[in-house]
Write a structure and sequence with these properties.
- By secondary structure, the protein is α+β, with helices and mostly antiparallel strands.
- It has one domain.
- Helix content is about 20%, strand content about 35%.
- Strands 1, 2, 3 and 4 form a four-stranded antiparallel β-sheet that branches.
- The chain starts with a strand and ends with a helix.
- About 10% of the residues are buried.
């Protein structure tokens, strides 16, 4: 019941891990010739079980995505926030409705 035609997959490989990072992600490590790495596989597809169809996101580890699923605490270590680039820094930082400063 999944529409795999509209699936997107993103894989990120984290290498050169510190000892603390290796300890934090011990169960997610993949061992390569150059040392241990962590693969983060993000997959999203639409589930046709629901009306309307819903996106289902899976976050797994391992080079082929066959490793354990990241628990919430581990996913928290990868959290990022995207801020759009400022094109006109002076204007964007002015106070007012819809300004970048008010958004931040």
């Amino acid at each position: 019941n999944n529409d795999l035609n509209n699936e997107i997959q993103i894989q990120v490989c984290f290498n050169n891990l510190t000892e603390d990072e290796k300890a934090l992600f011990l169960e997610y490590l993949t061992y390569t010739k150059s040392g241990p790495v962590v693969y983060l596989n993000w997959t999203c597809h639409f589930s046709l079980k629901f009306i309307p169809a819903r996106p289902i996101v899976e976050i797994t580890s391992g080079k082929n995505g066959d490793g354990p699923t990241f628990v919430a605490e581990a996913r928290e270590m990868f959290r990022t926030t995207y801020l759009k680039p400022l094109r006109d820094a002076y204007m964007d930082m002015q106070a007012g409705k819809g300004s970048r400063l008010s958004q931040v």
